Amino acid sequence: MVMNKNHRESLLTVLQSRRRLLLSGLAMFAMANRSVMAADGLLRTGQPQRKDAGRPRCVMIDPGHGGIDPGAIGHLGIEEKHVVLRIANKVRANLAMQPHIQTRLTREQDEFIPLFRRVELAQEHRADLFVSIHADGFTDASAAGASVFALSNRGASSAMAAYLSNRENAADDVAGAKYKQQDNYLQQVLFDLVQTDTIKNSLTLGRHLLNHIRPVHQLHSQHTEQAAFAVLKSASIPSVLVETSFITNHREEQLLETTDFQDRIALAISKGIMDFFDYYDAHERHFTSNSGG
Questions:
Q1: Residue 49 lies in a domain
Q2: Domain of 115?
Q3: Within a domain: residue 8?
C-alpha cells in the first residue's frame, strides 16, 4: 500500500502525539510516587544533606575539557585543559584535609569526558556538590576576571553568560555526533520536580565562592551569573561552574600558569565549598529547631 505525503505526515504526527502522551503519563506516575522514590534514594531533593549517618560529604570537582578538547587557548599557546586540571588537583588536596569531605575528580588525566558523563559521574558517586573549573576564553582580549555560574532554565543572565554557556556546551562537538543530546522529554519533566531547590542552593554556593575569590583575584561579575550550561544540569546536585580567569587575556594567561595563582584560586574555591556546608548545616539546624518547637 502506497501512502501519499499528507497521509504519512498525518500518521507521523499521531504517533508523536501518542508518544508524548505516554511519556506524560509516565511522568505523572513518577510525580505521584515522588515520596517513594525519594525514600529509596532514586530521586533526591536538591539538598546537600548527608544520606547516611557519619558519611562524609562528597564533592565532585570537574576539570573542564581534556583530551581532544583543549578548551580555550591563550595567546602564548597555553591550553585551558591543563591549567584547570592542576587547579582541580589543588582543590582536592585542600579538601582532603577535611575529614568530613570526600573529593573526587571527573578526570584525573588529559582525557576527553563527554558533558553528560561528567553529570553521571557526580550522580554515581552520590555527590553533594558539583564544581566545574574552567578558564574563560573570549573574542575580546581585554576581558578579565573570575566568574561563577549556576544553571538557568529561563535564559542567560547576561550576554557574556550566554556566550560562555554556548561555547562550553559545544565541547562535545569535537568528538562527533555520537555525544549529541537525545530526546529527553521525560528526563526534563523529572528534572523540573527538584530544580528549584537545586538552583537555589547552587546560587548560595556561588555566593560563598565569590566571597572567597574576591580578595585574591578581580571578579568579572560581582554576583553568580546564570545560563544553560549542560554540565550543570543535574536535577538534584547543587552545581556551579567557576571561570577562574580569562586565558585569552595576556596578563591573566601568564597568571594562570603560576603556581602562586593556582594555589590562591584553589584555596578560595576550597574555602567557599567549606563555608557553604557550614552555612547549610547552620540553617538546617535552625529550621529543625524552630519546626520542632
A1: no
A2: 55-287
A3: no
Task: Please give the model's pTM, rounded to 2 decimal places.
Answer: 0.76
Distance (Å, rounded) from C-alpha 221 to C-alpha 267? 20
Looking at the 3D structure of the chain, how many domains does it have? 1
Full strand arrangement of the beta sheet holding 147-151? 101-105, 57-63, 129-136, 239-246, 147-151, 225-227
The CATH number that applies at residue 219 is 3.40.630.40
212 lies in some domain: yes
Rounded Cα distance between 247 and 95, Å, is 25
* Nearest-angstrom CA–CA distance, 291 and 277: 21
Per the structure block, which three cell numbers stand in for 89?
588537583
**Cβ atoms of residues 77 and 70 within 8 Å:** no
* β partners of residue 26: none
Question: Going by C-beta distance under 8 Å and a sequence separation of 6 or more, which residues neighbour residue 293?
Answer: none
Q: pLDDT tens digit string along 219-266?
A: 999 999 988 888 888 878 999 999 999 999 999 999 999 999 999 999
First to last CA, the chain: 73
Q: Give 143-165 pLDDT, tens digit per residue.
A: 999 999 998 876 665 666 666 66
DSSP for 29-70, written as a single string: HHHHTHHHHHHTTSS--S----SSTTPPEEEEEEE--BTTB-
One-letter identity of residue 229: F
Give residue 208's Cα distance to chain centre. Answer: 16
CA–CA distance, 17 with 22 (Å, rounded to integer): 9
For 197-280, where are the E strands, in sequence order?
A: 225-227, 239-246
Asked whether 74 and 247 are in contact (CB, 8 A), the reply is: yes
Residue 206 lies in a domain: yes
